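Predict the assembly for these two chains.
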Amino acid sequence: MKEEFEKRIVTGPDGKQFEVDPMKDYFCEDRPQVHQPNSNTVIEKFMNWARSESLWILGFGTGCGAIEMRPLMTPRFDAYRYGIQWRPTPRQANVFVISGYLSVKTLKRVVRSYEQMQGPKYVVGLGSCTINGGMYWDSYNTINRLDYYLPVDIYIAGCMPRPESLLAGFEQLKKMIKAGECEGQNKYAENFDWYKANQKKIIKDWDMPDYNW
Amino acid sequence: MKELIARLKKQFKITDEVYQKPDQTYITVPQEQAVALVTHLRDYEGFNHLVLLTAVDWIEENLFQLIYLLNNNDFKADLGVRVMIDRHEATMTSIHHLWKAAATYQRELKEMFGIDFPGSPRVDEPFILEGWDNIPPYRRDFDTKKYSEETYFPRPGRTTHDPAEYMKKKLYPED
């Protein structure tokens, strides 16, 4: 357990001393919950349309694929015209692009960031590494299959995929969201124990709450 | 460079010398003289830049080889100091007092090869592998493929082709 997660006595601004237990006080203890779609299909369809047209990507590059997102942000390929933009914090984002190989050390940060994102949220696996490990398939430190740790909505294959294929992937993601197929967040909540078991199998120094919301 | 080696030979027991390129030379010294030689090179011979500190696993000889690659900006030349150390009790004197950056290299070597550098700052803290519980992964007796298959849920259906054979079949199927 890291020092910052241990119980400690804190002196408040008014001079009073009180005990802080970061694992209980700073994090929600509840498990993620399954969100039912709106019973009115017209409203649900409208909401899905609205969700699909505002994809806010978390600016978190996990591997070499992050370099392919830079041309997308800039005028050459300009993803902003499709309603896709990048945000600096997980609280403002709803799409997580796992860009390429994912080491165990990064996976720990990825899990934390993913759980802090606002729902409904989507995961895009970019590059071969997220599908079967790619060229790092026999590495001691990179994962092979992303879908064992996070619910992946769409993969963009390639090593590396060009910005055009990323744009095509995002268009496909939009179609899937409009059709109501992107239920990754609910899948994560339903199979929460299985995902956690897989994550804890490889993250051996687990020193954070089970659910980081 | 040969003059420099001849000069060094008077003071240090240099067992081997390799003139790899005009601007790249490697010398081998015993373990107990290595830090003295590196200090001498830095303070008197102008090799004041530590390019890298790395290791090679000579598992058959039961040795680790440490390489201190130093650069002299006046001569535009590199000099590598090779040291063979025992593989079972892999301990080496730290050089973090000569270059602060060496502490990072030593921390990496501790984690990846299991070579200990007593007294080096933060050498026992995890560097990249957080919570690693196996033998250090850069040692050659660590089977990285087996470890990956056991740990990371490999996706079935992966095949390997010999590139030459594969392209021959694809381009000239009738032959």
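The longest helix of chain A spans residues 163-178. Chain A touches chain B at residues 103-105, 108, 131-133, 137-145, 148, 198, 201-205 (CB under 8 Å).
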